[in-house]
Amino acid sequence: DAMVIQNPRYQVTQFGKPVTLSCSQTLNHNVMYWYQQKSSQAPKLLFHYYDKDFNNEADTPDNFQSRRPNTSFCFLDIRSPGLGDAAMYLCATSRGQGHNVLTFGAGSRLTVL
Amino acid sequence: EDQVTQSPEALRLQEGESSSLNCSYTVSGLRGLFWYRQDPGKGPEFLFTLYSAGEEKEKERLKATLTKKESFLHITAPKPEDSATYLCAVHQNTGGKLIFGQGTELSVKP
User: Fold this and answer.
1) What domain range is A90 assigned to?
2) Which of A36, A65, B5, B52 measures 20 to 30 Å from A108, CA to CA?
3) B70 interfaces chain A, CB cutoff of 8 Å
4) pLDDT of residue B30
């Protein structure tokens, strides 16, 4: 089945130790998104790629970076995680701008000690 | 400021007890309103898209409706497997991104 796969599902890191979360998709969708979701809160868009074009949300901290080396893969790098960065990180894809039905991965839950 | 607000935050129902979840929105131009279901520890799963006031969509025990200011997700005769968090999201005309509400956590007891 075509899908969005996130790894790892659970990540524990120490305060300040860099973390990379990965997302792969077999849907051949143009757009890939990274959302941050804290407990009982709305998913918050961090950034998205339309093909190779990177779009950063204005309030996304510099601590968060992303890479999309090809259509299928996208990475979220957290350079120096703080306690406030503990959250579920959701990757999603869509066919293109104007096609906003998002297909989400299962998420990566980040714990910061 | 564009905003999406869902109510109630949590809803507990007995199996078979029908109810509705509300999503009210203020956005500068609506391109679409989306409902997603999210199970604990998982990513949201798409349910419905609504584009214009008066539109309705149905899927099993769920029915979504849309007015100019809000959307309702009606749940008829719910079962325990309907327990989940239901998220509403709005696609703006300008900017083009989805704005999510905080969700309604539904619990259906047998």
Assistant:
1) 4-104
2) B5
3) no
4) 84
